[in-house]
């Protein structure tokens, strides 16, 4: 691409809109056109720059043993998520994740501890999804991607 040209980015998006009664799948095709700047050229922020920065900050980070303030542990067949100073913890399972016993109430906790209980007859061995940690003193939640083997299935 040459400076002065424009580049068009497009994506097919899918997400869930959830409340206490269930989730509804939604989707959209979106696109954004941006100018191509010269390398090292001072550039003026576009109208969308703030939105792009906010969206980038919402990309889940991998939850690793080095992640401070959030940890996972297996307790009696359930996965326990602990997050220091959390006002709320939510879990958004990926499609390949074992089914939760209660997919609505079982994926939300008020406070620093969320216990995820999976259907015992679901033998999928890896829990994967996104953990959202809301802190009372922060405007935006922290998002972590998890992938952890279930000890009871040999996953």
Care to count the β-strands?
Answer: 10
**Biggest beta-sheet profile:** 5 strands, mixed
- How much helical structure, as a percent, in the residues? under 10%
Please give the alpha-carbon distance between the first and last residues: 46 Å
Determine the strand fraction and express it as a percent band.
Answer: over 45%
Helix segment count? Answer: 1
List segments where confidence is low: pLDDT < 50 over at least 5 consecutive residues: none
Query: What's the helix-strand series?
Result: EEHEEEEEEEE
The main sheet orders its strands as: 3-10-9-6-7
- Give the overall shape: elongated
| Average pLDDT level | 89
Verbal overview:
The protein has one helix spanning 49-57; strands spanning 6-19, 22-35, 61-62, 70-75, 78-83, 86-93, 108-110, 113-116, 126-135, 142-149. The strands form 3 sheets. A 5-stranded mixed beta sheet has the order 3-10-9-6-7, with no helix packed on it. It is elongated. It is built from 1 helix and 10 strands. A hairpin with a 6-residue loop joins strand 9 (126-135) and strand 10 (142-149). With 155 residues, the protein is mostly beta strands. The model has no long low-confidence stretch (mean pLDDT 89).
Brief characterization of the structure:
Helices cover 6% and strands 48% of the residues. The protein is mainly beta and 155 residues long.
Q: Can you give keywords for this protein?
A:
single chain, 155 residues, mainly beta, five-stranded mixed beta sheet, three-stranded antiparallel beta sheet, 1 helix
């Amino acid at each position: 691409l040459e400076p002065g040209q424009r580049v068009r980015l497009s994506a097919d998006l899918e997400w869930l809109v959830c409340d206490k009664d269930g989730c509804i799948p939604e989707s959209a095709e979106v696109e954004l056109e941006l100018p191509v700047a010269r390398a090292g050229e001072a550039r003026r922020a576009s109208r969308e720059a703030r939105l792009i920065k906010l969206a980038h900050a919402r990309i889940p980070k991998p939850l690793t043993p080095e992640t401070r303030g959030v940890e996972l542990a297996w307790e009696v067949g359930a996965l326990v998520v602990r997050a220091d100073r959390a006002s709320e913890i939510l879990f958004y399972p990926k499609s390949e994740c074992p089914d939760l016993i209660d997919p609505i109430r079982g994926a939300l906790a008020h406070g620093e501890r969320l216990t995820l209980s999976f259907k015992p007859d679901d033998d999928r061995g890896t829990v994967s999804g996104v953990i959202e940690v809301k802190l009372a003193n922060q405007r935006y939640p922290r998002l972590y991607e998890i992938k952890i083997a279930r000890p009871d299935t040999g996953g």
